[in-house]
Design brief:
- The protein is built from 7 helices and no strands.
- The longest helix has about 30 residues, at about 35-65.
- Helix content is about 70%, strand content about 0%.
- It is mainly α.
- The protein starts with a helix and ends with a helix.
- It has one domain (about 35-115, about 125-185): Ferritin (Up-down Bundle).
Amino acid sequence: MSKNKDKPKRKDDKHQKAVAEIVPSVTSPDIDIGISTNDRRKIAQGLSRFLADAYTLYLKTHNYHWNVTGTMFTALHTMFEGQYTEQWQALDEIAERIRALGFAAPGSYADFARLSSIRDDADASEVPDWKTMVQQLVSGNEAVCRTARDVLKTADNAGDDPSVDMLTSRLQIHEKYAWMLRSLLE
């Protein structure tokens, strides 16, 4: 496959513009942790996108836990519960890192919808079959990984080791989730 084919489509132009315009509110302007305010802002912006993707994936995983049916019910119900429980715990860590950098963390559905690269299912009134659920969660975990990698570069360039460490840990988890889910479709 060519490199362009392997690359999933990113956000549409309207979404990219909306995300680029988001500047988190400075809550602690006098922070001196060895990272400039401008770098902290860029990292906080990236972590806000990462938080939005992580929250959207958490919500989707929890929804699928509630609504899965079919021959894979027990296995998927249990797997989804383990994943959404772990994801829930991680959300707090991500938001608190944004706060530690001196910026307000996004916390509304409107913020998350605007910031997330993960879209809702096209028709939320229809519950997808288990295979579609798994495919959607593979895509969602991969999207979280792409966002994490993007933010990780920004944090690493700024010498923000705590953010790099957190993002590296999250990458390992979401890559594993994507692999486990993908294996169900083989």
